Amino acid sequence: MVFQLVIPTRGFIEERDRMFHDTLKYAGAALAAGWFGLAGGPVLAAGIVQWTAPADGSSYAVGTNVSPITGRADGFGTGGSGLDLMFVLDASGSMSSVVSGQSLQQWQKDAANALASALPTLQTSVGVVRFTSGAFTALNLTPTSNLAPITAAIDGTPASGGTNIGAGIDGAVSEIAANGTSGRSRQMVVFSDGFSSGDPGAAAAVANAAGITVHSVGLPGSSVSTMQDIASQGGGSFSNFTNASDLSGLIGIFSGTSGNLVGVSQVDVELPDGTVLANVGIDGLGNFSLPSWQITAGANVFKVTATFDDNSTATDTLTLFGGNNPAPIPLPAAAWLLIGSLGSLGVMRRRKS
After folding, report:
1. Is the confidence at residue 2, as pLDDT, over 70?
2. Euclidean distance between CA atoms 11 and 66, whole angstroms
3. Which terminus of the chain has fewer Cβ atoms in its 10 Å neighbourhood, N or C?
4. Is the model's pLDDT at 40 over the cut of 70?
5. Cis before residue 291, ω within 30 degrees of 0?
6. How many CB atoms lie within 10 A of CB 112?
7. Which residues form the VWFA domain (predicted)?
8. Nearest to 306 by CA among 262, 275, 252, 273
9. For the residues 137-144, what does the mean pLDDT come to?
10. DSSP bridge pairs for 214
11. What pLDDT sits at residue 160?
């Protein structure tokens, strides 16, 4: 009798391990319900909407055109403004594999550079973490006003070694904690073929619990289930990248043209004359702006209502006052001394006479 030795492939072993981890994970579904809603999406914190300029209670002469009038909505209740975004890049040996005429390494560069180019240039920083069996910070959070070091960190990502996506996610969390800007939205995008040791979905859940949204981009031929699980547990969006157009949804989220990063579904504004501006445009970070407003006499009250992805709402009001006489301009201290001196001279003259 002849026996044939069959050696399991790497893909078979990883799929077996993933199924084992999934069995354990979904056995704890009752615990997971505390983090995720029935639809599998993240449960938002209490959302907020607030006017940011001008200051509430400001006074103007009647007829003044006030501009800009700005505000911000955030379904996660973090407030502040701006974005700290980490790119988590796969530097493992599988990135040397060729799919549809080019290496996964090149597919990853194309995707990451396209996304970086679409980001806002104000109040936005990008950092880069590379992972193999461990993680390495290739670029600390850097303002997107200077794309050169960001592009260099993306293009310099190698392709060798093992794969531990969770280590990359943990590395991105550490970088945001160490160098992030207080009050900014905190996000990361994980790029990979999804074949990994450990449980990257669990790492994404931990990151999300720390207030960081985790998106994922599956490169051609990826384990779609793994990459989807990362985005689902991280509270983010998943893109299955096979050509440039596949990134349009994710790019639209960051730019605000098709969704946003802050869980806002709609912003409506009621102007002081009762006119309602429905579905006011917002950028990817929830910022919005109104046309100029000509101040009328008395209280000019603006009311904004934000509706969030979980159908909850929040409101805020801004009151600007209009008067016929502008506020008096304060005199400098020297002028008051001069007036006081002139008054003293008048008293002395009356006494002399």
Report:
1. no
2. 62
3. N
4. no
5. no
6. 25
7. 84-257
8. 262
9. 97
10. 188, 235
11. 95
What would the mean pLDDT of 135-146 be, rounded to a whole number? 96
Return all residues near 259 (Cβ < 8 A) that are at least 6 apart: 237, 249, 252, 253, 284
Asked if 217 and 116 count as a contact pair (C-beta separation under 8 A), the reply is no
Q: Distance (Å, rounded) from C-alpha 85 to C-alpha 136? A: 16
Tens of pLDDT, residue by residue over 69-79, are 999 898 876 55
Residue predicted with more confidence, 154 or 345:
154
Contacts of 341 (CB under 8 A, 6+ apart): none
Beta strands in 247-346 (DSSP E): 264-270, 276-277, 287-290, 293-294, 298-308, 313-323
Helix (H) or strand (E) holding 273: none
Q: What is the pTM of this model?
A: 0.61
Would you tell me the crossing angle of helices 104-117 and 248-255 to the nearest 10 degrees? Answer: 30
Following DSSP, what letter does each residue of 156-217 receive, concatenated?
Answer: T----S---HHHHHHHHHHHHHHHPPTTSEEEEEEEE-S--SS-HHHHHHHHHHTT-EEEEE
Domains along the sequence of the chain with CATH: 48-77+262-323 (2.60.40.1220), 83-255 (3.40.50.410)
**Residue bearing the bigger pLDDT, 131 or 326:** 131
- The span from the CA of 175 to the CA of 121, in Å, is 20
